């Protein structure tokens, strides 16, 4: 992107800017001022020319109009001595942001060439970008940009925020008039007047001039329960997307904190934008900080369909484009968004994962039950100890085969014992051990030796 081209579309100068603005032709070191580009919450942005490098640049001057004003030709003075501490805090923040931006190298972040303190205030020199703001671009269109264009815009801005958040910096002033677009060049985040380094457990006394429709509730009164962080920028970015999609800014966060009647975008079929992007936009616009994405990685995962997007209840009040629940032939309510979009709603990634998980649990349960039944069946069919051994002795209880054992006789012979080992039909009892006990009073006789054959 050519840095020397005039940024002709970012002009936000108001009628009161002339009171504190330096005149055209004024010299600041090697820079000659050519006019006012715009006025932000913390200062004034000038178009200037670098006489040394012969290029157009933008110079931002720290000028919080609520605290200070121009006295004399170029000196900046406090409006009241009571503002001295707050002014000094803001000045230090301005310089720290210039130092941080000078280190960053991202196509969607403004590059700082140089900064210095002088005339009771501070200045930073930046490239002069061409293009138009998102606000002006949307005002010139009757419909919202297509979904693919919005997805590319969001991804590039998320890359810039990721660089900032990694350094502990939040932008705090994202809005349609602070994002510059030009042709096929990456969008550029402008106006870091509200940005400052986030220091743990420290409350900043200086607050920015907020844009009610784009500032989340924690920017109005930061406390331990509602601290500012990456989620603060996500709210403002979501509000900017909302404006690009609908052409209207969302309701102020202060009103939504009392009663959230902000219509949801999800399921509305707005401008043919993919419903997933509308769901992510609603997520970013959650009134409570803890209900928003925590970091850029979560947002990217949600946009890729890898992370379930939390859904909030819809407001009770109806609106012109809010979706309606229709009745199907079977008498069951259709999914919200079906009638509005004309397309069936596919299961969301988390629903597919849950269905797959339930199926796996069911299969695993059946397998465990089958294994348990098989083990029980094998156990019940197994031979009991002392009953299934192949050498079990049997006793023939038939009266005609009973043997009388005389005292001193040896009982059954070894041949008889071998014969007794064979089953004898239904009269055989299998409960006897291998060697039967002699009856009471009967003395077993020694086995007779077998006769030798000659």
Task: Report on this structure.
- With 454 residues, this protein is of the alpha+beta class.
- It has 3 domains: 1-130, 2-Layer Sandwich (Phosphorylase Kinase, domain 1); 131-322, Transferase(Phosphotransferase), domain 1 (Orthogonal Bundle), CATH 1.10.510.10; 334-365, no CATH class.
- The protein contains 11 helices and 15 strands.
- A 6-stranded antiparallel beta sheet has the order 1-2-3-4-8-7, covered by helices on one side.
- Helix 5 (230-246) packs across helix 7.
- It is elongated and about 140 Å long.
- The termini are far apart.
- Mean pLDDT is 73; it is low at 1-17, 194-208, 317-353 and 386-436.
Question: What is this structure, in a nutshell?
Answer:
This protein is an alpha+beta fold.
Attribute tags:
15 strands, 15% strand, alpha+beta, six-stranded antiparallel β-sheet, three-stranded antiparallel β-sheet, Transferase(Phosphotransferase), domain 1, disordered N terminus, Phosphorylase Kinase, domain 1, elongated, 454 residues
CATH class of the largest domain: Mainly Alpha
Q: Tell me the structural class.
A: alpha+beta
Total domain units: 3
Radius of gyration, in angstroms, nearest whole number: 44 Å
The general outline is: elongated
Order of helices and strands: HEEEEEEHEEEHHEEEEHHHHHHEHE
Distance between the termini: 124 Å
Oligomer: single chain
Question: Care to count the β-strands?
Answer: 15
The largest pleated sheet is described as: 6 strands, antiparallel
């Amino acid at each position: 992107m050519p840095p020397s081209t005039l940024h002709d579309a970012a002009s936000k100068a108001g009628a009161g800017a002339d009171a504190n603005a330096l005149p055209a032709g004024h010299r600041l070191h090697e820079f000659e001022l050519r006019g006012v580009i715009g006025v932000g919450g913390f200062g004034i942005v000038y178009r200037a020319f670098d006489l040394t490098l012969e290029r157009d640049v933008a110079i931002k001057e720290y000028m919080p109009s609520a605290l200070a004003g121009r006295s004399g030709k170029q000196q900046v003075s406090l409006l009241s001595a009571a503002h001295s501490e707050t002014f000094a805090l803001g000045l230090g923040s301005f310089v720290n942001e210039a130092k941080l931006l000078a280190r960053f190298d991202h196509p969607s972040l403004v590059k700082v060439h140089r900064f210095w303190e002088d005339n009771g205030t501070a200045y930073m020199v930046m490239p002069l970008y061409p293009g138009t703001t998102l606000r002006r671009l949307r005002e010139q269109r009757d419909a919202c940009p297509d979904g693919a264009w919005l997805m590319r815009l969001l991804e590039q801005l998320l890359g810039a925020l990721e660089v900032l958040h990694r350094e502990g910096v939040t932008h705090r002033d994202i809005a349609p008039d602070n994002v510059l677009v030009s042709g096929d060049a990456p969008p550029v985040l402008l106006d870091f007047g509200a940005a400052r380094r986030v220091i743990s457990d420290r409350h900043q006394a200086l607050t920015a001039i907020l844009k009610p429709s784009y500032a989340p509730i924690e920017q109005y009164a930061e406390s331990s329960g509602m601290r500012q962080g990456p989620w603060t920028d996500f709210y403002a970015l979501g509000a900017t997307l909302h404006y690009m999609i609908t052409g209207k800014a969302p309701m102020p966060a202060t009103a939504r904190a009392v009663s959230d009647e902000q219509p949801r975008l999800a399921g509305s079929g707005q401008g043919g934008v993919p419903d997933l992007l509308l769901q992510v936009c609603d997520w970013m616009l959650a009134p409570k900080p803890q209900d928003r994405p925590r970091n850029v990685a979560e947002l990217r995962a949600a946009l890729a369909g890898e992370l379930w997007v939390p859904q909030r209840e819809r407001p009770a009040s109806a609106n012109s484009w809010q979706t309606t629940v229709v009745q199907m032939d079977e008498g069951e309510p259709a999914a919200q968004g079906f009638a509005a979009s004309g397309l069936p709603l596919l299961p969301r990634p988390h629903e597919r994962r849950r269905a797959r998980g339930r199926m796996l649990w069911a299969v695993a349960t059946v397998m465990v039950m089958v294994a348990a039944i098989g083990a029980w069946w094998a156990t019940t069919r197994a031979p009991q100890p002392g009953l299934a051994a192949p050498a079990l002795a049997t006793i023939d209880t038939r009266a005609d085969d009973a043997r009388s054992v005389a005292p001193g006789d040896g009982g059954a012979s070894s041949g008889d014992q071998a014969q007794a080992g064979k089953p004898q039909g239904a009269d055989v009892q299998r409960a006897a051990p291998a060697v039967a006990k002699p009856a009471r009073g009967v003395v077993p006789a020694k086995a007779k030796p077998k006769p030798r054959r000659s």
